[in-house]
Amino acid sequence: MQANYNLLKQLRCLVLVPILGLASSAVIAGEEVINNGTGVDSAYEFSSHPFGTTSSLFDKPGVNSAYAFSSQPFGTTSSLFDKPGVDSAYEFSPHPFVTALSRLDHIVLAAMEEAKEESAPKSEQCVQFAADPDADLGEVLNAGCKPTLGQMSALMDNPLGNVAMLFTQFDYYLLENDANGVERNQYVYTGVFQFPKKLNDDWNLISRVIWTVPSVPISQDKLNAFGSGSFSPGTPGAPGSGTLIDAIGGRTTGFGDMYYVGLFAPSEAVDMDDMGLEGKLLWGAGFDISFPTATEDVLGSNKWSAGPSALGVYMGPTWKVGGLLMHYNDFAGDDFDSNGAPVADVSLTNLQYFVFYSLDDTTSIGASPNIIMDWEADSGDRLTVPIGIGYVKTVQFGPVPVRIGLEFHYSVIRPDNVGTEFGIRFYMIPAAPSAMFKWMG
């Protein structure tokens, strides 16, 4: 880091010295021409002549030469900036050359200070925290230390951890009708804001606010003209009617249903050493709610739904294995859609399981697909079971750790009518320790 600091110092000199010299030459060269003009008799009025000067400008004490003016673009004198509200070169915005140089100098100086700060030796306590992958990040931050990227990656591995995360996920699904071989593409953007809330010393509430933007292979406008709306996407990748897709076609994109999942989880994990296993067991249980926020009938369920949720995770030295179980049953909503067609009831189970193997502190391979059971569908169209493989890496973007992942899923079991043959999932997840936010404590 010391090398970076020295490099910035050299860069500052290399950039600023030639510019200042050029400015000095330009000012001296332009003095005679501008002296022949009239009405330019103050520093404030001189702002319209950024590369020239007048003798009257340098009549003030402390500014007695073009070189003195050009060599002091970042300093000020009371005589030079005697206009009300103009008391520094940085604030002297009517002078574009001085302002530009001043801002450039501020940027370079800030970078030099940051490099110098980073090159400063860490305290013994910070060194100890950095060497402990299981360090309490609240204590790390309270001590004025920074969590390492490996510590943040480990915290993000824990779905019940004290970390706030913003998921940005894109899914592509290839849908296939086994009866006639017709294939269609479906896309879903899913956003998830996950954050913990400390209830007491023993329990936390982990909240997940979820919103979706589906793009389904059926036209709502054509569906309206056809006079039927009995189409329910149910879950990503599992639309309800292959017949309508084949007959109508087209595409509808818009805002889908929203969901909330709340999990009550113990503050302390279960140590599995007593069972002869390295690692910890984490669990949580709670509830989920689905809100009918879709902008079109084909993009949502048109129902209010709710049900139980549960999560269990084994976190070992290299393996992370677990699952999030959610079930939904409708309790309110529309009985008929905008076309007067009956709206299907909701009884749906969604199990997102995950299996990951750590290659190092910030890199894993594995996948987290969703097993879907639609209890309202016909017996041959209820179950979707995908398997998958993917690559996940946690990187640093400035001060923010971001997890980036790419997964490929293939459905070994899918509905006979229309089901997901395979899918591609890409996601980015910036994160921050919950200790940074007082309202989460």
Unreliable stretches? 1-11, 13-94, 229-241
Main beta-sheet strand count, sense and barrel state: 15 strands, antiparallel
Oligomer: single chain
Number of distinct beta strands: 15
Number of domains: 2
Dominant shape? elongated
- Specify the structural class: alpha+beta
Fold-level CATH name of the largest domain: Porin
Describe the structure.
By secondary structure, the chain is of the alpha+beta class. It has 2 domains: 118 residues; 295 residues, monomeric porin ompg (Porin). The protein has 8 helices and 15 strands. It has a 15-stranded antiparallel beta sheet that branches. A hairpin with a 5-residue loop joins strand 14 and strand 15. Helix 1 packs antiparallel against helix 3. The longest helix is centred in the first third of the chain and has 34 residues. It starts with a helix and ends in an 8-residue tail after the last strand.
